[in-house]
Amino acid sequence: MKDCTKPTGEKVEKRKRFLLDENEIPRHWYNIVADMPTKPQPMLHPGTKRPMTVEEMSPIFGEELSRQELNQKDTWIEIPHEVRELYKNYRSTPLVRAYALEKALGTPAHIYFKNESVSPVGSHKINSAIAQAYYAQKEGTTHLTTETGAGQWGAALSYAAKVFGIEAAVYQVKISYEQKPYRRSIMQTFGAQVTPSPSMSTRAGKDILTKTPNHQGSLGTAISEALELAQTTLNCKYSLGSVLNFVTLHQTVIGLEAEKQMQMAGEYPDIVIGCFGGGSNFGGSAYPFMRHTLRKGVKTRFIAAEPASCPKLTRGEFRYDFGDEAGYTPLLPMFTLGHKFVPSNIHAGGLRYHGAGVIISQLLKDQLVEAVDIPQIESFEAGQLFAHTEGIIPAPESNHAIAAAIREAKKCIKTGEKKVILFTLSGHGLIDMSAYDSFLSGDLQDHELSDNEIKKNLTD
Ligand SMILES: *Cc1c(COP(=O)(O)O)cnc(C)c1O
């Protein structure tokens, strides 16, 4: 029967974006460790090889963050009032249904993305930067040091430090410092001091440069230098933008919002996807949904998308390894390519890290998450299609999540299934246009790694 209540020719209004009221911004972060059937193995002190304690970690990270890092029993951790107030500057971030992308692919799948690129610094990193700077100020810290790759984390921390009246010193991976000059300007605009790593300003940097004079830098070298500066400077703590448990904890604000927003859309994801550097945006997006898998057996697939040139999840080894080049960090039980691994110069600087977070590594071992590796060119093709259809130019890192989502959506064409796919758009690419330039001019390459290259850094 014809519906006579609507004038003929009227188009159906489809809801495109789902936003939460300010008072619905989460009040707690979700600590998945409390719900994990197999707890992650402990981090070990590099000297004594005994499990790290809060007392041992506090001089480096501060007390509250160290407590969060080792907390295995509290499922919910309150977001401090001051942090929530700053979240209001840009949260909630939109959950968006990618109708145009679905149409371009011709897929019956429903594709949603959680748009963290709307944050003032352009990525999800700010969610943890604000929290880390807040705790630092509260505990009397006056200086923070950190590492950064493409500069997303450095930019977020520089801003957060400024808000809380803290001096920030950032070691940026040298190749990115040169490839992405505007990120350096952003950090400097927020008042941070930026040094390309490896540099001559630390013993670790000098050692690396003596051995390899034209070392291009890696997150591993930058972490060593930032840690060394923190340990040799008064009232100075070290911040980290990924990998550690407390970073991913802060990022669960993404998934907790997305959960409510998916409810508004009347759907629940069959597949949750995030790109993978150290695991913070992936974990932050996936864990809130995974709690229903752990508690109630809800079947959802969780896919971490890493670059084929830095494949620690798909081709690395699970073992204890250092988080940095010089071996200053605690030993972490994780999937790793070896702490001396230097990834090729792909444009997704934020994904060029040799290891994976401790929680995610355990979850991968327990087969609660899956991992895929994406070649660089496929990632940019996906990013360009996303730009054409949704009008947003994604960060090169985020392109890996989009490519993985497209792979899944294409499978649905074959099977006819209307799977609900949710991925996180971790950042925009407006400061990464040199990467798109190389892609558009055909200069971009896929960097395949041989088994021997992978083995080399894992046998010491
Ligand atoms: C840093 C970064 C990543 C990778 O880090 P994770 O901790 O794995 O999330 C991904 N996307 C963007 C935009 C980043 O800045």
TrEMBL record:
Keywords: Amino-acid biosynthesis, Aromatic amino acid biosynthesis, Lyase, Pyridoxal phosphate, Tryptophan biosynthesis
Keyword rRNA processing carried by entry: no
Molecular functions per Gene Ontology: L-serine hydro-lyase (adding indole, L-tryptophan-forming) activity; pyridoxal phosphate binding; tryptophan synthase activity
InterPro entries: Trp_synth_b-like, Trp_synth_b_CS, Trp_synth_beta/beta-like, TrpB-like_PALP, TrpB-like_PALP_sf
Segments forming domain Tryptophan synthase beta chain-like PALP: 89-427
Catalytic activity, reaction form: (1S,2R)-1-C-(indol-3-yl)glycerol 3-phosphate + L-serine = D-glyceraldehyde 3-phosphate + L-tryptophan + H2O
CC cofactor: pyridoxal 5'-phosphate
Parts of the chain that traverse the membrane: none
Stored SUPFAM superfamilies: Tryptophan synthase beta subunit-like PLP-dependent enzymes
A cellular component annotation (GO) from this entry: cytoplasm
Pathway, per record: Amino-acid biosynthesis; L-tryptophan biosynthesis; L-tryptophan from chorismate: step 5/5
Any matching Pfam family: PALP
EC number: 4.2.1.20
Coiled coil: none
Annotated family: Belongs to the TrpB family.
Quaternary organization: Tetramer of two alpha and two beta chains.
Biological role: The beta subunit is responsible for the synthesis of L-tryptophan from indole and L-serine.
Name by which UniProt lists this protein: tryptophan synthase
